[in-house]
Amino acid sequence: MGVRAAVLRMNKRLSIQLAAALLASATLLSSALGLFRDRLLNGMYYDTYKVGIDAYTAAFTVPDFMFFILVSGALSVTFIPVLNQRLATGNKKSAWQLSSSLINFMALITLIASVLIIIFADPILRYIIAPGLSESGMALAVSMMRVIAVNPFLFAIATVIASMQQAVGRFAFLALAPTIYNIGIIIGALFFTSGITIFGVQIFEGGIMGVALGVVLGSILQLIVSSIGLIGLGFDYEFKIYWKNKGFRQVLKLLPPRSFDQGMDYAVSLVEMNLASRMTEGTLRAFQQATTLHLVPINLIGVAISTAAFPKMTERLGQGRPDLFRDELQGVLRVIIWIALPVSLITFFTRGYLVNFINNGGDALMSMLLGILVVAILFRSIYHIAARSFYAQQDTRTPLYISIVAISLNIILAIWFTFTLELGAAGLAAAQSIVAVVEVVILFMVMSRRIPGLFGNGFWSAVLRMASATGLMSLVTYFMVTSFPLGAGDNSFLASFPKFCLIVAVSLVAYVMLSQLMSLQEARPVVRRVKRVFFGRTR
User: Fold this and answer.
1) CA distance 510 to 482
2) What pLDDT, in 10s, does the model give residues 473-511?
3) Which residues have C-beta within 8 Å of that of residue 165, sequence separation ≥ 6?
4) How far apart are alpha carbons 273 and 56 in whole angstroms?
5) Do 163 and 391 form a contact (C-beta atoms < 8 A)?
6) How confident is the model at residue 72 (pLDDT cuts 50, 70, 90)?
7) Beta-carbon neighbour count of residue 380 at 10 Å?
């Protein structure tokens, strides 16, 4: 009873603001652990065993691809609106049948996918993913991929369970699960790489393969944590697929376009990895690390806020209130743009610090790639809520068609920039940023027709003021970076982190003050909170 009560207290229903804050905080913690994980692995292998770290990076691609195309965001944005409809009408029996059916169906599909990955790991890596790897790197990547192949199966079950909690506004264990996953990988890097001995018998000799075992451990722990969050929801699981359940059939109908959309997105990563593997050793890892760094603010801003807002948006449409849906969407869009603009610019100026955090001593290639990808930070953050505006209307096809155009352009540009213009890895990053802009522009054009009044003069006036505040803040950021440069003695995390925090803090304070002067409503809650904390007043 005590455990149940504790879980219920942690997993209570939250408002959009609290849910967004919780998800952003959890994402920040998970990202920090992810950066520590990458710093740990780069310190162990990036300079001394580039072939090994490239192999490890390549091994993740297909298991991740199968998870993204079959489950990931595809499931949540198609499943949650349908589940919410059942719960809103009090039809819990149908809701739980739908949930059980999806758990069992996704487990079956991903189990088959995992077996196929194990069987065909060698030709997939050799001819599609990383043809540029050396023979030793190829053999290692194949072995690692076969170990990590179990991930899609474990992630699929965890994702359905997490989506059920998200649908009813409960985010605590959804937020905690990714953190646990990273902890599993860190355990693998710290302990499994030294070998595993049980009762004096060595069952694993160690090496970089231990990191792959840590990945599996993290996946298992994530599933366990996600399952704990079901306590108190009244979920009645059945080991059965209800093929005749209308909700289940509706999700299956909505799922293919979104899954294909997700798969197309990830197909770009496969092309980029293929191209990067043909460059010098370590380029594959450097590009992946720069991509990972640029995804941190996207996840903190775009994904966290959009994930928190999505259930409420679907609820508004379920209530037959498109006017409230439009107001919610416009408000969330403004908040995301207001936050993403300064974060993107600060990332550009502090990219040397950020790279230093994941690779002791920094890396020129990673820093250069991250500098190019900052444009994608802004537009990818906007993309997540823009795409969800269609998913809330149970329209998965429109974002799919737009993604097909954008992703085709991305692949064409990536090949042209790297082969014809010989820009190397910089061409891959440039293609990503260009396409991020194009995709959001097209989405906005369609949204303006679909949702009249969404992009009025007030919206664009606010965006212009946000851009002006960001431009003025950039002068402050530049001054701070030149006043506190990353020196030769700042290689360690503890030496560089205080400088980084000071630069970010001063820049953000300047931005909030400028936003307040420009009468941006997004700054008011921040100013009120600061006054309450430091002065005990709200006016």
Assistant:
1) 17
2) 999 999 999 998 887 666 777 778 889 999 999 999 999
3) 11, 171, 173, 174, 226, 229, 230, 233
4) 12
5) no
6) low
7) 27
